[in-house]
Specification:
The protein has 164 residues and is an alpha/beta fold. Helices cover 58% and strands 12% of the residues.
């Protein structure tokens, strides 16, 4: 089972397009930090309560270690960003993010990093999602101005999924 660490953007986008529960129930071991969970709405928090999303809690020594970790990262990263990056480093897990600065920092830490399109690809490849439903979800995300997705890659997937 693949271990993945979620930042807020991927959790929010998956929830927004109605696929978060499908993703979390689809055979990944999903984690995030308690700091990120503070940014989540009740439906996402309920999935954590049900055990579909593991929340890593930081104690005082963990928070101090996180401050030291953050000091070595680009200033553009928030404390929450650093919490999931640090978690991915410690767990030797993939980081899922839609944030370009966090992606770049993860790559600098030699952390495997993916975004929302990879999640959709994984759901289609594992037959947890039909290509048609993936295309509909992606179109919904593209309507949202906050979705930070590469348009050319989105168009290629929409074309492929619509003809599948």
């Amino acid at each position: 089972m693949k271990i993945v660490i979620h930042d807020a953007s991927v959790l929010i986008d998956l929830h927004r397009c109605g696929l978060l529960k499908t993703w979390l129930a689809g055979g990944v071991e999903a984690h995030t930090s308690d700091l990120v969970m503070l940014e989540m709405t009740q439906p996402v928090q309920e999935l954590a309560t049900r055990g579909l999303l593991q929340v890593e809690h930081l104690d005082v020594s963990g928070l101090l270690a996180l401050r030291e970790f953050q000091a070595r990262q680009p200033r553009s990263l928030s404390f929450e960003d650093c919490s999931v990056l640090s978690l991915a480093v410690r767990m030797e897990a993939a980081l899922l993010t839609g944030d370009a600065d966090l992606r770049q920092a993860a790559e600098a830490e030699n952390v495997e990093v993916h975004g929302l399109l990879w999640v959709l690809d994984e759901l289609v490849a594992s037959a947890h999602l039909t290509p048609w439903r993936a295309a509909a979800a992606l179109q919904e995300l593209l309507k949202n101005l906050r979705a930070r997705l590469p348009i050319s890659e989105c168009e290629a997937r929409l074309e492929r999924w619509r003809t599948s």
